[in-house]
Amino acid sequence: MNESFYSWTALSVYMVTGIVIAALARRKLGAGMNEFFLANRQLGGVVSALTYAATTYSAFMMVGLAGITYKFGVGALGFELTYLCGLVLVVFFGPRFWLVGRKFDYLTHAQLLADRYESRAVGVVAAILCLIFLVPYAAIQLMGIGYLMAGVSQGAVPLLAAMVIATLLAIIWSNIAGLRSVAWTDALQAIIMLLTSIITLCFVVYKGFGGFGNLFAQMDRDIPALLAGAGLFKFNLFFGLSLPWLFFSLSNPQVTQRLFVPKSVTAFKQMIGGFLVFGFIYTLVSVLWGFSARLLIPNLQSADLATPSLLALPLVPRIVAVFVMVGILSAAISTIDSILLSLSSMCARDIVKAGFKPGITEQSEIKLGKLIIPVLAVVFFLFANWAQGKRGLAFMIVPLSSAASAGLLMAIPAIVGAFFWKRASAAGALSSMVVGAVSVLVLQFTGFKPLGLWPGVWGLIICLFLYVAVSLLTRAPEEKARVFIDYLREELPKYRFL
Amino acid sequence: MKKSFWLWVGWFVFLLLVNFILPFTLLAKVALIKGSFLFWLLWAGVAVVSMFMMFLPWREGKPIHERGRE
User: Fold this and answer.
1) What is the pTM of this model?
2) CA A216, CA A209: separation in Å to the nearest integer?
3) A91/B contact by beta carbon, under 8 A
4) In this complex, which of B5, B36, B59 lies closest to A230 when CB atoms are compared?
5) Chain A residues in contact with B51 (beta carbon < 8 A)
6) Rounded to whole angstroms, how far apart are CA atoms A231 and A25?
7) Does A246 touch chain B (CB under 8 A)?
8) How far apart are CA A88 and CA A94, in angstroms?
9) Which whole-number Å values give the CA distances from A368 to A28, A130, A343, A357, A373, in the listed order?
10) CB contact (8 A) between residue B59 and residue A495
11) Residues of A in contact with B66 (CB under 8 A)
12) Bridge partners of residue A43, in order along the sequence
């Protein structure tokens, strides 16, 4: 049996299983936008937790985070756990999204903003922001898949072929039954991805080092520079990467959309709790992969090759390596199809319906959303194909992810203010998002870092200032703000929400 | 806003400050696994337990569709 046979057999089984699961999910599919894009707001707790985890954690963890651990050390653990701690925003804001989503029938956070600020322009801009900044983020998933599969299969599955397969599967799975097929496939894949990564870590640690105690002792002895403080992370790099990550759970539409879908409070609690446990374990495993790779294969040309190279070592049985490859592939695809679904719903609802064609029927909206999915997927693919050959920090998976999140961060003041500040105005929200996003783009492309601070940090400072200042100088939608915020004030205690 | 809301906000602001300050100061020269590595694991453990304490008291309200749209 050769490498090519193992790899293609595993891939085929994976593709067929995914399609069967998606087809089963389709049997429950009803009619309407809510049904297709939000599973009719009726997802159970376990599926919600697993789809939340699979959407959030993907190629950037086992490939990107392991890579940045390999290169910069322990700061990668702090950086990723900062994200996990940022889930407290879901504890604060999740119930608010959930309640107003049901009350006002919101499909996306852009729609929430447009309604709350009584401005279609706010919704259109929020949606365009997501479109611009999620392209690199989705492309990263494809790059991760490409690196991983080419490495693990030892070239049997070429990088380009891996990216094409992933793009096609993401299109198919998001189209079959919308969020239902995406969530169901996510759920199974999240379990596979967690179990296989733990099993592989055990193989690496016990066969490569003789146990966890020996691994830690060798880390202390051989790579002390990667353990001191935040490793090789300077404060500005650590802060610049962590800040957008901290707000990830509120700024990314594929994640905020999941705040609308749990069917009950119990399901919501299970989603948060399940994700926290999953995230803690998966982060630790990914970071230990990175450290193990650093000790076992210290001279890699690119840090993003740490995981593929680790899996290609003889101490990991081939069948396990191939299984992990499929697990990571599926996790990455689950992120891409969630982004595709989210962005297509934003295009149809927030840009076309709210912006240009208010009379469009719900059926036409769904058709449009489904048509947009392959178009976006091709854009993701083209970006990934362009970026995968580039070298340097800016083209590593984690910095690229964080740069994308830095742009999405510009919607945070408008989102937070929508729930708490009656004085906030549409002009404040618009100016903060537009100027903030342009600032991030300019700083990102020029590489200019005033005072050493990263684009997301400057963007947030500018964006926050404009949101407050312009809101104070312009007229707020007082009646809508009162209805929206008073509704929450009345409802939150009924569920003992904070 | 309830008092507990602001107490939790304050607690998490404190946790975040610790997260950004401690590894770059007190732990900057501790080049061992029991330095920042252990700190961040314990820190995240405290954050996760805190979040569980925040959301575990949530309970089912009367379903919105039974109350009708207001």
Assistant:
1) 0.91
2) 9
3) yes
4) B36
5) 87-88, 91, 272, 276
6) 45
7) yes
8) 9
9) 22, 18, 12, 12, 9
10) yes
11) none
12) A262
DSSP secondary structure letters along A236-254: HHHHHHHHHHHTHHHH-HH
* Tens digits of residue pLDDT in B12-57: 999 999 999 999 999 999 999 999 999 999 999 999 999 999 999 9
From the CA atom positions of chain B, what is the Rg in Å? Answer: 19
| 8 A C-beta contact, residue A61 and residue A145 | no
Chain B touched by A212 (CB under 8 Å)? no
Cα separation, A376 vs B46, whole angstroms: 40
Enumerate the residues of chain A whose CB falls inside 8 A of the CB of residue B56.
269
Of A165, A492, A92, A497, nearest in space to A325 by CA: A165
Going by C-beta distance under 8 Å and a sequence separation of 6 or more, which residues neighbour residue A91? A272, A498, B51, B54, B55
Please report the ipTM that was assigned to this predicted complex.
Answer: 0.90
- Looking at the complex, report in whole angstroms how far the Cα of residue B53 sits from the nearest Cα belonging to chain A: 10
CA distance A383 to A453: 26
CB atoms within 10 A of CB A9: 12
Q: Which of A278, A323, A392, A343 is nearest to A152 (CA)?
A: A323
Based on the number of CB atoms within 10 Å of its own CB, is A305 exposed (0-12), middle (13-18) or buried (19 or more)?
buried
Amino acid (one-letter) located at A51: T
- Give the CA-trace dihedral at B26, B31, B34, B39, to 10 degrees: 40
Strand ranges for A267-332 from DSSP E:
none
Q: Are residues A333 and A340 in contact, defined by beta-carbon separation less than 8 angstroms? A: no
| Token pair listed for A198 | 């733990």
What residues have CB less than 8 Å from A62, skipping those under 6 apart? Answer: A144, A148, A193, A197, A286, A289, A307, A324, A328, A331
**What gap in Å lies between CA A209 and CA A296, rounded to an integer?**
9
Q: What is the per-residue burial (b if ≥16 Cβ within 10 Å, else e) of A355-376?
A: beeeebeeeebbebbbebbbeb
- Radius of gyration in angstroms for the set of CA atoms belonging to chain A, rounded to a whole number: 22
Q: Is the pLDDT of residue B65 over 70?
A: no
